[in-house]
Amino acid sequence: MATANVSSAVRPYSEVPGPYPLPLIGNSWRFAPIIGTYKISDLDKVMHELHVNYGKMAKVGGLIGHPDLLFVFDGDEIRNIFKKEETMPHRPSMPSLRHYKGDLRGEFFGNTAGLIGVHGPKWEAFRQEVQHILLQPQTAKKYIPPLNDIASEFMDRIEQMRDENEQLPANFLHELYKWALESVGRVSLDTRLGCLSPQGSEEAQQIIEAINTFFWAVPELELRMPLWRLYPTKAYRSFVKALDQFTEICMKNISKTMDKAEFDESQGLVKNDSDISIVERIVRKTGNRKLAAVLALDLFLVGVDTTSVAASSTIYQLAKNPDKQQRLFDELKQIFPKTDAEINQNVLEQMPYLRACVKETLRMRPVVIANGRSLQSDAVINGYHVPKGTHVIFPHLTVSNDPAYFPEPKRFMPERWLKQQPNEQAAGCPHAGQKIHPFVSLPFGFGRRMCVGRRFAEIELHTLLAKIFRKYKVSYTSGEFVYRVNSTYIPQSPLNFKLTMREE
């Protein structure tokens, strides 16, 4: 009898609130150019509007060629879905990338399609082969010395970029792309791509442009009517061309790395741990060059844009909050008596406030504004029956800026993430030590589909930021950062930060 009562309390899927679909064209028109009310570049505003209008959950159904999108704005429900996910959790599929890897370039990828845009047994088999190397904390720590060297080179480049007013160029985000790309190349391939050299690198520039095009094209292909399945649209042609160029250039460097590794091994050469690339580690463990190559491609594809944007947003938040920047400087000065901060494992573990600054930035402006799952079985969410195949979206940008979870969400308060000290409230940090819901700010995802490069990204970020804020006082006078959605959440504003040298 109790079961019947519970069952009768579950409301049908048709009653889930959301924008009303029109006959025949459903809600697809909302994403259409000119007439549409939902701009892809403004998805952050769209998700906020859905939350305001419909509450804890909103359905955007009737999308021609796409499953329904179910936006869940409740932390407890997000936790329930994550906790119940299958051994092989399905992200909302990326048909364009699956088509590229499985159909267009199937002869190259075959059964080794990587981690991005892949689901089911192929994804599970691939992850099993690579996760023990990528997710071990000790593996990432082996690369601290070379990542420190690259960040130091970038600091030299920053010094050269500052103009007579001590300002960086407006396109500083592009320079951060070069730093991130050089870092990924060094970790993945034990290769220096030349991104930071005075003359630059044409290949590195082509990789960056290909990645930018990829991130622009994906939402165009995935959220608009999938006309690319009928004929090659502009976005589709750009997408394929970018991925082909990206794969060609990366594979040339990957092959060089593998050949050199095989030669070194045949000569009995003993290497330092930091000189053994991720690719070489994978080949040594599995003997599978293709698997190592596809993993490296994935790391290049998602490891450049993400860390660059996270760095730019953190610099901005600290520039706009001089009191927080001063507290960070005090922490860094204790660790580094001189302005040139040399990073090693020991000092990385002594910077809790810096880590809190990055966490707070990624709460306010996560690089990926939403995560999701494609339901593999029927579920009950927020009291509604939701059918298998629905794409459930976790809009972390909206939820982590909800005052229900973070009081005063628009205030940059890294102290939220610190264990409360006796003097915190007196220091004007009323939310220090508050209990934070563990499922409302997930910048690296959660569970078995968590970002496999997380530990490397954090080391890169903490290393560069420590060097910048130990050496310079940073300010920003160009107004509030404006962001746009381009797969990732990218600042549109100029990054002309003013960097004033600190005294020793």
Automatic annotation (TrEMBL):
GO molecular function: heme binding; iron ion binding; monooxygenase activity; oxidoreductase activity, acting on paired donors, with incorporation or reduction of molecular oxygen
Species of the source: Drosophila willistoni
Free-text function comment from the UniProt entry: May be involved in the metabolism of insect hormones and in the breakdown of synthetic insecticides.
Gene3D superfamilies given in the database record: Cytochrome P450
GO cellular component, one term: endoplasmic reticulum membrane
Protein name, entry field: Cytochrome P450 49a1
Top-level taxonomic group: Eukaryota
Pfam families per UniProt: p450
Record keywords, A-Z: Heme, Iron, Membrane, Metal-binding, Monooxygenase, Oxidoreductase
Binding site for heme: 451
Bilayer topology: Peripheral membrane protein
Similarity comment: Belongs to the cytochrome P450 family.
Cell compartments where the protein resides: Endoplasmic reticulum membrane; Microsome membrane
Cofactor: heme
InterPro entries recorded: CYP11_CYP27_families (IPR050479), Cyt_P450 (IPR001128), Cyt_P450_CS (IPR017972), Cyt_P450_E_grp-IV (IPR002403), Cyt_P450_sf (IPR036396)
